[in-house]
Amino acid sequence: MPRPSDATLPRTFRTALVVDDHPLFCDALSMTLQAVSTIDSMHTAPTLQDALDLLAQGGQMDLVVLDLNLPDVNGLDGLLRLRKVAQCPVVVVSSMADNRIISSVIHAGAAGFIPKHSKRDVFHKALDAIQSGQRFIPEDCTLLEETDSEDRDNAMVRLASLTNQQARILQLICEGKLNKQIAYDLSIAETTVKAHVTAIMRKLGVQSRTQAALIAKQTSFASVLHDTSPPA
User: Fold this and answer.
1) Which of 80, 134, 162, 183 is the most exposed place for a label (fewest CB within 10 A)?
2) CATH number, domain containing residue 93
3) pTM over cut 0.90
């Protein structure tokens, strides 16, 4: 029998992780979440990697709250990687509340989307919905149909199959770094980087680093926003 999606499992939220690189917002969001829910234990992480490290060390969370604009994240990569390891709903809280961004986030598997500066009652409604197994989107948002959905879904599945180390290396490839530079940044041997790059290309079904980077970037918000800038 297939395992139900983590976003459809009713649960009681007791422990939460907020992933955001702004300390003041982390504090404010932590207080808001505790005020509108049963959460009594809060953890924070300023980067995606810090969040992944915390989870890898055995941090058991009932809910992960993710900001999209992190220093070590490219587009939907952070959401995909957290969903793979968190074993709990991941809700996105962001100031980028364009319909296309919200739709992209939901289609990528987020349990919900909450505009970053929403009032407390919106957070209350969101957590109630997510806790009961429903996905939450803002009332004024209309989910858009996915374009090229089969290709996008396949790309997301392939990206989600990468290990954390492979995903980090792919992120650095997207930044234009060479194997030698990646090895230095990650404190590993260049031969290890080459082996990972080979594995990445095999998993993504491509023949070059450039093609691998293209697939990663096609799941980012550059392909969602086109020429439209998100609201401030």
Assistant:
1) 134
2) 3.40.50.2300
3) no
